[in-house]
TrEMBL record:
Keywords: DNA-binding, Transcription, Transcription regulation. This is GntR family transcriptional regulator. The keyword DNA damage does not apply. Gene3D superfamilies: GntR ligand-binding domain-like, Winged helix-like DNA-binding domain superfamily/Winged helix DNA-binding domain. The keyword Transcription applies. SMART domains: HTH_GNTR. Coiled coil: none annotated. Residues 5-72 form the HTH gntR-type domain. Transmembrane segments: none annotated. It holds the Pfam family FCD. PROSITE patterns: HTH_GNTR. PANTHER family: GLUCONATE OPERON TRANSCRIPTIONAL REPRESSOR, TRANSCRIPTIONAL REGULATOR, GNTR FAMILY.
């Protein structure tokens, strides 16, 4: 027998996708009745989905309002980048032994697409390709809990990335160059300490660019 659709999971995916894509903005209230009607469920699966998103810090409860989309302020954004630098550096390093020649060619293709998107000032595509580039590497990572934590942090700050187009324009050319450097060391060196350091610095460079923009 086929399993019945998991209404909690459906509600979770609907709400999460809208938060990440900016359809639901920080401070916006989540209407449980509305979501329940959309997914064809009672309130219970929706509330369970909201609790899961609350644990991922995408939603918070406020007095007299209920569940609202949680905003990411500048300090949280910077702290998130610092944590990601550590997690992504290690994840990249331990993925390295599993990356095939074909996988490295795929990374080159993604980075070339980023260069083309930059010439078209297509920031939305750049953001999607950047995520694809890094998570393609992580798809080879043997530590799934590590990747889950990275994914949750990316989701948490993705909405911030979407509204900072000037920051994206300043950072992207250098980020693409750093991707080329990373591909080169993944292909030719395979020194895991160097790879971890380079991947960690890649994220810290994003943090530094953000700080410089704040101060300017």
């Amino acid at each position: 027998m086929n399993k019945k659709p998991n209404k909690r999971q459906i509600a979770y995916e609907v709400i999460r996708k809208r938060i990440i894509e900016g359809v639901y903005v920080p401070g916006q209230r989540i209407i449980i009745d509305q979501i329940a009607k959309e997914v064809g469920s009672s309130h219970i699966p929706v509330r369970e989905a909201i609790h899961q998103l609350e644990s991922e810090e995408l939603i918070e409860y406020t007095p007299n309002t209920g569940a609202v989309v949680k905003g990411v302020n500048d300090e949280i954004y910077k702290e998130s980048l610092q944590v990601l630098a550590l997690l992504e550096g290690y994840a990249t390093a331990i993925s390295t032994p599993y990356l095939s020649t074909q996988a490295l060619e795929t990374l080159k293709d993604y980075n070339q697409e980023m260069k083309e998107a930059l010439s078209d000032f297509d920031f939305e595509k750049i953001g999607a390709l950047n995520r694809t580039f890094h998570f393609f590497i992580y798809s080879y990572c043997p530590n799934q809990l590590l990747i889950k934590n990275i994914e949750q942090l990316w989701d948490r700050i993705d909405a911030v990335r979407k509204i900072r187009s000037s920051f994206t324009l300043k950072r992207t050319p250098k980020s693409i160059e750093e991707h080329d450097q990373l591909i080169s060391i993944l292909q030719d060196d395979k020194n895991l300490i160097k790879i971890e350091s380079l991947a960690r610095q890649h994220k810290l460079n994003t943090l530094q660019t953000f700080i410089e923009q704040q101060e300017s």
